[in-house]
Design goal:
2 domains, 162 residues, Arc Repressor Mutant, subunit A, mainly alpha
Amino acid sequence: MYGRHAFKFGRGWAKMAGIEFPRMRRGDMKFLLLEVLKEGPRHGYEIISELEQRFRGYRPSPGSVYPTLQMLEEGGFVTGQEVEGKKVYTITEAGLKLLEERGERPAEEPCGTHPAVELRESLRKLASAVIDGARGTDEATVNRINAILNKARKEVYAILAE
């Protein structure tokens, strides 16, 4: 697979490498969504992006966010309104009360602090730079990029051999 989706590194790469990231505990997602909406109305992808910024390396799937938003809406904890073709969610008084009843428990990082999270992001950035560098460039540039990659691979193996 080539193009902009060629180098997306999700949980699959880590699982193949034997790295397990802790998952979010059952029921925590609703409180994270309410905490984000407490700051102001947002649509689903804005909420997902906000959670990704708060929890380095964790990006909740739309399949976990949207059903939870629907459940919160059905429970009266948020309202959803169509704005410019996107459904924008706003926390209600009942949602604020639910957060208040929960208390001031800080949200735990869903992915923990596993150092592989930073590796994944670095690898994604490197892959993107390599692909960008290989497009439409001359053979000499491609050879230089290839030499850098081979050197980096050898250095990583040298570290692992220590």
